[in-house]
Amino acid sequence: MKMVLLDTLTFGETDLGAFDALGEVTVYQTTSAKQTQERIANCDVIVTNKVVITKENMKNTPSLKLICVAATGMNNVDLDAAKTNNIEVKNVAGYSTDSVIQHTFSLLFYLMGHSRYYDEVVKSGSYSKSAIFTDVSKPFFEIKGKKWGIIGLGAIGRGVANIAKAFGADVTYYSTSGVNRTEDFQRQSLDAMLKSCDMISIHAPLNEKTNNLLDYEELKTCKDGAIVLNLGRGGIINEDAVAKIIDEKNISFGLDVLTEEPMRENHPLLSVKNKENLYITPHIAWTSIEARDLLIASTVENIKSLK
């Protein structure tokens, strides 16, 4: 069996040796759209994280039997074309749930605790010159007793909700699909959530119901001092609106996902004045060592099922 791994740079230092036991493996760290067809020629299995596999790619690769998406979302594969050409497409679901839950709180604590400010106070030498033993110039609040709104109560959203509840937060949720039902947490309208919650975290997929869900007018209704976290998909929050409102109102934003990734050089978020209220990480919530190991192991199992 001939396998092609198209973008292994996204896996970092994760051990890929398990693929070798399955057949002939060709590995590329990155693959551009222009390189894809040449690299998949005569292969039986494609492993892709973000490289797009088109209808034309499938048509011109008659030996192709399986496309393994080393991720949960499969929007980078033409699924209709795969079905027409009798090509299986398999993804990996749930591998990064705990990693994303953990990173949600990493974003929160960085913003809530003013970590950037206090780190610089100490490392700049300012603390060494202080007249007192502490610095209370940037007050932080406790999660206990605060209202936390979850947008998208899937596995990740529920995991965040349970931990927030353990901290003593009053947790509510907004269902983007309108399907979720739970007795564990109270359901709220989006408008009510934005107006009442101290923390709001997004764990929903990007679709026609969530695209641009939080635009300028919605964000303007958030209560003073609110923290909004997006660990779902870029595009759920209008980033131009964030860049505008963050300098108009006391709202903090923690973003792990953006509409365009990597972030473009002239992005308006890079020019905000109130930088302390903005924390952006480069789509890393899914990348814990354990999550990547599980991702590769599950992808290998998907290939084994073809044999």
Walk me through the structure.
By secondary structure, the protein is an alpha/beta fold. It has two domains: 2-95 and 289-304, Rossmann fold; 97-280, Rossmann fold. It is 30% helix and 15% strand. It has ten helices and twelve strands. The strands form two sheets. The chain has a seven-stranded parallel beta sheet with strand order 8-7-6-9-10-11-12, with helices on both faces. Strands 2-1-3-4-5 form a five-stranded parallel beta sheet. Helix 4 (97-112) crosses helix 6 (155-166).
Summarize the structure.
The protein has 307 residues and is an alpha/beta fold. It contains ten helices and twelve strands.
The span between the termini is: 9 Å
Secondary structure tally: strands: 12
How much strand?
5-15%
Low-confidence stretches are none
> Strand pairing plus helix content: what structural class?
alpha/beta
Task: Calculate the mean pLDDT score and round it.
Answer: 96
- The spatial strand order of the largest sheet comes to 8-7-6-9-10-11-12
> Can you tell me the CATH class of the largest domain?
Alpha Beta
- Calculate Rg over CA atoms: 22 Å
From the spread of the alpha carbons, the general shape counts as: globular
CATH superfamily of the largest domain: NAD(P)-binding Rossmann-like Domain
CATH topology of the largest domain, anyone? Rossmann fold
Count of helix runs: 10
In the CATH classification, which architecture of the largest domain applies? 3-Layer(aba) Sandwich
Instruction: Summarize the amount of helix as a percent range.
Output: 25-40%
Task: Give the biggest beta sheet.
Answer: 7 strands, parallel
In N-to-C order, the SSE pattern is EEHEHEHEHHEHEEHEHEHEEH
